[in-house]
Each structure stands twice: as C-alpha cells, then as structure tokens.
Design goal:
single chain, 325 residues, alpha/beta, Rossmann fold, 2 domains, 8-stranded mixed β-sheet, two-stranded antiparallel sheet, globular
C-alpha cells in the first residue's frame, strides 16, 4: 500500500507527482535535500543539546573554551554564551564555534543524549533552559513517500554532523536517510585506533557507508575532534556539500528549508520540474527570496523569467504540525 501525504496540504502530493515525473524524464534518478532545524523538526538541536548538558554533563555545559572574540564568563552556560556570541559576531563565526566546542566529547554520550532530546515521554526534560526539538511526523511521511518513488533523501544542515547522525538514529530514520547521506559540519572522529576523516571515507568508498559510520560512533572510547573536514554547511556551503558527492550536472528534485540560509541549495533545483519547499511563514523571507531570485537571474543570464523561477516554490505553513505535537 502506497503512502498518502495526508499530513500535507491537499494539493501537495499531486504537485509533487507531476513534477517528479517531469524531473525523472529530464534528469533521471532524483534526490531530495532537507535542512534539519525548523525543517525536519521544530527547534534547534545544538542549543537544545547544550541545555540538556546542564542536566547530563554539567562540566561540559559550564566549563569550556569560548571564542577569542567574546569572553566566557564564570559559570556561564553554553546556551547563554552561544547566544551572546551569536549576537556579537558574524553568524558564520558563531556557527563554526558552536561545532568546534564538541572537541573531545564522547560520541557514545552524544548518541544517548540525542535520544533523550527527542524522547517525548521524558516529561522531566520539558523545562530545560532551551526547549527540546520536536520532530515533524509529516516529514517522516514525506520521506517514506520519496523512498517509495525512488528518490534518494539527504540532510544538509549547519549543525554538527555528529548530532545530525545521532538524530537520524534516534528518530529511526536510517532506513530512509542513510548516515552517509546526512551531512553537517564535519569533524574528524578519534577512535581507539586513530582519527577518521568520515568525509574522505565517503568520498573514497561510493557504496553504503551507513553501518560503518554508525559502528564508528558507537565504538567504545571514540571522541570528537576539532579538526574540521569539508565546508561549513551554511548558505553556499550547503550547495558545496551537495556538489562534493553529486558533481555537475546533477540536480536535486526537491529541496526543503526554512530560511534564506537554505536558498543556495534550493536554487540547485530546476525551476520547471523541481520543488523548492519552504517550511516557514515569515513574510520577510518572501521579499528576500524575490531579491535573491532577481540577483541570480542577473548573474546567470536565465532564459526564463523571475516569475517562472518563483513558481518552483511550494510554501508550507508548519503551524498545524506544531499544534499537533
């Protein structure tokens, strides 16, 4: 029995079917790219994990090395410090530091803590200093639908890749998004027998590396490092990450995101047969989207109009999903 997208707006599934048929006729096998925070789930996984550390590992939550640009105050939590850093510096500086801070964290602890983040039965964790993320079940439905229609799903997130992998495992999504197709800000992982560059591992081994990556994260004694590999997967870095594993002329069929930070990878999708899914209702984004489209049209010497390009977008209000959580 095929999956029906009954958690989505009424016309959404029909629109996807028509566009997917055209896409496969023109481009062959299809892929779908998803941002994570506020796209797959409501909330921010990094800040929520920082808040959880205040309960599970207080030393890690309060004793850490801040960024040189902003002093870490005595007994200041990761949540409070990160928010001050974000306000005081460029966003990319704050995002990169937010990932660097996981240096030396045991991967086994990150895996178990991410399970706690998404476990809705843990009512004792409902009052953390930053709210836990809540997964959108409508997205699970879409992922199943895409899998049934032979579309390869990816995640490309600006969060640390280790947390994205932990979330895929915690939410039982590995069968729909294998770990080698879940990309974030990537760091070397120090196993007992040496450091592993998992970006290089995936580039050198084109088969399914999902089980190998899971085994690495679960190996006793394994910890994160601060040695970043690959791009900072934010804005243009998201498109760059896709291109590492999908060289030109490959194009994704569907790209889902919630903010202008996702525009770069959303513009990878062809306007005439793809789907740029916007999971948001902020009216300010509409103006920014139009501005970004006009800029790209001027640089790219498009044969089609700005209005035609904007027709590729499908705007989804996530509020009904949040109301059901």
């Amino acid at each position: 029995m095929s999956t029906t997208l009954d958690l989505w707006p009424q016309s959404f599934e029909d629109t996807l079917k028509k566009r997917l048929e055209r896409f496969q006729d023109q481009h062959g096998r299809a892929s779908a790219l998803f941002d994570a925070d506020e796209t797959l789930w409501h909330g921010d996984i990094v800040e929520a994990h920082y808040a959880l550390l205040e309960v599970t590992r207080p030393d890690a939550a309060f004793e850490f090395v801040g960024h040189p640009a902003v002093e870490h105050l005595e007994r200041e939590s990761l949540v409070a410090y990160y928010q001050r850093l974000y306000a005081a510096t460029n966003v990319d500086v704050a995002f990169e530091w937010a990932c660097d801070v996981y240096d030396k964290h045991p991967t086994s602890a990150l895996l178990s803590e991410t399970v706690e983040l998404f476990d809705r039965t843990r009512r004792d964790l409902d009052n953390l200093s930053y709210p836990r993320p809540k997964f959108y079940e409508a997205q699970r439905q879409l992922l199943v639908w895409l899998n049934e229609h032979d579309v390869d799903a990816w995640i490309i997130s600006a969060s640390p890749e280790v947390l994205i992998h932990a979330a895929v495992l915690a939410l039982d999504l590995k069968g729909l998004i294998p770990l080698h197709r879940a990309l974030g800000v990537n760091y070397g992982i120090l196993a007992p027998d040496g450091e592993v560059n998992t970006m290089k591992l995936r580039q050198e081994n084109t088969g399914d590396q999902s089980d190998a990556l899971e085994d690495l994260l679960k190996a006793p004694g394994t910890v994160m490092t601060a040695n970043r590999n690959g791009p900072l997967t934010w804005q243009e870095g998201k498109a760059e990450a896709f291109r590492i594993f999908n060289p030109e002329p490959a194009k994704p069929f569907l790209v889902a995101g919630d903010s202008p930070n996702d525009f770069a990878m959303q513009f990878l999708t062809p306007h005439d047969c793809g789907a740029r899914v916007r999971i948001a209702k902020d009216p300010a984004h509409v103006a920014k989207r139009h501005e970004a489209t006009v800029e790209r049209a001027a640089k790219g010497a498009w044969a089609h109009s700005v209005e035609d390009d904007l027709s590729a977008w499908l705007d989804i209000d996530p509020q009904p999903w949040r109301d059901a959580q």
